[in-house]
Specification:
With 103 residues, the chain is mainly α. The chain has one domain. 77% of the residues lie in helices and 0% in strands. The protein has 3 helices and no strands. The protein has helices at 11-18, 23-82, 92-102. The protein starts with 10 loop residues before the first helix and ends with a helix. The model has no long low-confidence stretch (mean pLDDT 80).
């Protein structure tokens, strides 16, 4: 039998000779890339949420301690300026609670 002329080829012979990718191979590759990108996006968004939570858990106690220190300083300054005892400024029940906190 005679070999077909290189100018007259079937579509299959032309695609094999060209050495390119088929449409199915390209679609499978795109699906795999999409799956990887979606996974990376989910991990990234979770890491951002965890970072925000960690910042809150770190900053909130620091701010509370700072505010408590400011209140204690203001209390001490008020006592020094007024020159009077605590009993004149606060009701007795509040005084007992404050004295318990100072211990």
């Amino acid at each position: 039998m005679r070999e077909p002329s290189p100018l007259i080829q079937t579509p299959r012979q032309r695609s094999l000779a060209a050495g390119g990718f088929s449409l199915l191979e390209v679609l499978v590759a795109l699906v795999l890339v999409a799956i990887v990108l979606i996974s990376v996006y989910r991990l990234y968004s979770q890491s951002i949420l965890m970072d925000r939570r960690a910042r809150f858990d770190t900053v909130a106690p620091q701010l509370a301690r700072l505010k408590l220190a400011e209140l204690e300083r203001a209390w001490q300054e008020a006592e020094e300026i007024a020159g009077i005892s605590d009993s004149l400024l606060l009701p007795p029940s509040m005084l007992e609670k404050l004295r318990a906190l100072r211990r």
